[in-house]
Amino acid sequence: MRTPRTLELALVHTALFFVSLAVLYPVLWVLGMALTDSQAFSMDPNPLPDSPTLDNFRSVVGTRDAHGGWLFGQQLFNSLLVSAITSMVGIGLSTTAGYAMSRWTFPGRDASLQVFLLTQMFPGVVMAIPLYILLDEAGLLDSLVGLALVYATTAIPFCTWNMKAYFDTIPRELEEAATMDGASRWVCFRRVVLPLAKPALVVTGLFSFMTAWNEFILAATFMNDERAFTLPVVLQSYVGDYNTQWGQFAAGAIIVSVPVMALFFLLQRHLVAGLTSGGVKG
Amino acid sequence: MTPWTHLKCCLAGVLLLLGAPVKAEEITLWHAYRGQERTVLEQLVKDYDSAHPEVTVVVRALAYDSFVTKLEAAAPRGNGPDLFIAAHERLGDWVPLGLVEPTPSDAGGFHPSTIRALTLDDTLHGLPLAYKCLALFYDPDVISSPPKTTSELVDLARMHSGENHFGLAYSATEPYFHAPWMHGFGGGVFDGDSVALDQPGNARALQFARALRTEGLIPDEPTGVLVTQLFNDGMSPMVINGPWFIGEIDAKRNYAVAPLPIVDETGKAAAPYLTVEAIQVSGFSTSKESAWQLAEWLAGPEAAKTRAVEGRQSVANLQAAAVPQVADDPILAAFRAQLDSARPLPNRPEMAATWEPMARAVRRVMRGASSPQDAVRQAQTEYAIVAKPPPPPRDPTAYLLIAGIIVLGGLGILVRRIWRSRGEIYVHRQAYAWVLPSGLAMTILVIGPFVVGATVSLFAHQSGTWTFVGLDNFLDIVLARDWPVTSPLSFWFTLAVTILWTAANVFFHVSIGVALAMLLRAPWLKMKGLYRVLLILPWAIPNYITALIWKGMFHRQFGAINGVLSWLGIEPVSWFSQFSTAFAANLVTNTWLGFPFMMLVTLGALQAIPGELEEAADLDGANRWQRFRHVTWPLLQPALLPAVILGSIWTFNMFNIIYLVSGGEPDGSTEILISEAYRWAFTRGHRYGYAAAYAVLIFGVLLAYGRGTDKLMRRRAS
Fold first, then answer.
1. What pLDDT score was predicted for residue A274?
2. Domain containing residue A111
3. Which ipTM did the prediction report?
4. Per the domain annotation, does A178 fall within a domain?
5. Over the stretch A172-201, which tens digit does the pLDDT of each residue have?
6. A and B: number of Cβ contacts within 8 A
7. CA separation for the pair B58, B42 (Å, rounded)
8. Is A224 close to B549, i.e. CB distance below 8 A?
9. Residue B4 pLDDT > 50, yes or no?
10. How far apart (Å, rounded) are the C-alpha atoms in residues B441 and B438?
11. Does residue A215 belong to any structural domain of this protein?
12. Chain B CA closest to residue A228
């Protein structure tokens, strides 16, 4: 492509700078609240504190349970575990379903795709209590696995759609060649298709991970023991009846966001490539 | 040690453990305390636990937000606590559900107001631990003696008001904070046993509050956050707030507390609501006796003294309150003095549905949109509609019959289809095996619960009893039987707002997302990675907190956005007093949250568009816009379409932003369907059936939308 003129370059950078500023300003505010020693919500136009302190981070990270165990560590572990299980179950279920929907036009395929989309339309207000009863009957209350299963199913529709769109872009000829050599469908899927679908797997995994990582309403309803809480539930507990410990809440929000930001940063190349880029060719 | 002896040792250890005196009973206590109150409670329970070897007490601290839902879901299924600490005002809901036990013994030695608060239909439920009510906080360096009457209060406030200074600050638009004036002017929520929001005293109280505002003695849009800030910055020397405010006061600031003044016009005290925190024994507990023992001990003088001295609680126990350390504490003494005039928050179930109409009335008057008399009259009308009795019970036979026919018919069609394409199904049998796991998971965990939840829409719920009402909930909503269609509370009005909301959001998400993606695509751009990560930040931070920050930025007097506007020489805007601006505030917040997703999708799609096409167009002399419009955009569309469909569905149900930013202001006009459903379920007297009907209708609307887009996609594909 052509080399840009200086004016053009300046314009693009100015535009991006201002948009980034608009994006960053509220984020800096959260950071500012996390770094002040007061628990009040700041409305000061200058988001950065005069005398920054890490007290809020210390008190959020340093919580201990009744037996003196490191509660925050346990809860961080819970969050990681639930999100990891959710990603794995989400990827496992949505890649197989997405692959079948991409490769075969079987009776009921379009209907299934439609139903998957429909489930995104269910308002959460009516779901919590029936799910509670279901998990209770299955003995999965207060269990991280039960929580992860619920999260995985809420993430499946998007993941399946995304995987299907990506598989659509992978030429069938590759698999046909492998099948000729005597490989079964499954082997061919694992050895040929999945490696090619890596960017989409990354996006699918990240999406399921985030679904689990940020959710608190269901987690707060299903979990009793604070040692089984996930971090968003802990975050929520800084919000009280009349008042909120804003400083600790903000510190908690930053702590919860950092892993997701880190993942974004590490995976950004795949992220861009993996999001339904297939749609164009499909 | 040989492995064998090792094993024997282990066995002996196990036997020893089994033989050891096992603690007979485990009882569970739930609470939502935080900070110092929590530490003190947990220490007390620990002491009790070691003094009583026959029981083990498990304490669970729950998040306040989920406490009620969780308790109501868990207790009837036997997963609830044996006892719990909760405010008294939900008694009216909980007694019919069997959630709280009547107190078995005589409860003596507590302040009579706290006992009155816990009495429903002449029966005492639970024991009072502590009480909370509003009082007057003031800065003793500025206010030498606190006002005794409202005229003194107004005079003092005048002296200390001016440019960005307000003599008095309180959350004036919240009915809870407005209540002292309401009571002081002789009004109230109930007249005898029935709700009467249109009492003359209520109108006079609104008149008084409005005058405070028009004179500039109190700030505009006074949220709790702003009140704290004003006091801490020395811009408001007097604040009406509760004991929780102490934790928010800057350590450098001096403060004192006094009871609220007497209203001159009536000679009555401005009486705040009294909230009593009580320890309740669950009706579903299997260890009620031990639970009561612990409850009595926690409410008793010894534990109460610790709670007062170390937890700084205003305790209900008279003996503990009389201990010199407690009685001589000036702050606790001021709240103790306020207790005498405070009115227990009504614990009747009708109360829950009065907050919203009352809040609307206060807000309408405070922004000058309505006269006090009209506002209270309208509040009463709105209450009457929300609290109308459930529709008459219907005979479910006909419905069961119809449902049976529909299910059978559906099954019949399904079987016929399967039979017709059996050959094809057999050929593709492998495909079904691949889809089966996710299909099964979705059926059990998503579709099943939704069907169960949706069935609730055929029932009406009021005060713990369910009646089958057939389609009456739907008919009420769709035929707008309760409100005129043009009222902001009607289904059709809300639907129109929701559609507008979704369309506007999708438009901005897509246009900003695509524009940024086009900028970020240029191969010669430096720092691409940095911009990309910066621009997806909104996606990574929990939207709950950013929504609240945006709300703060839209504040009329102190928000950053009006700050920028006045810097540019534009009049500051009162964002939440008109539909258009309140809607715009919601829209800006959600656009900020939503464009990164579209930007990423576009970036992904752009990668698949070969550069040669554009270069060819470039050579043909097409300008930048023409190249985008005729080459890139048509190629982007198919990739964006699924993202747009999903994005619009998510936006349609974007509850958090509406609830936290505009909260439906003004007058519920910016509410969307999902937030209305939420209000019916939780703030309008637990009309779960009605809320479920809303949810089913939301699903219906989206279903129709999905069918439409499906056709569109097919047309594109062919």
1. 67
2. 66-243+255-280
3. 0.84
4. yes
5. 888 888 778 777 888 888 888 898 888 889
6. 338
7. 10
8. no
9. no
10. 5
11. yes
12. B60
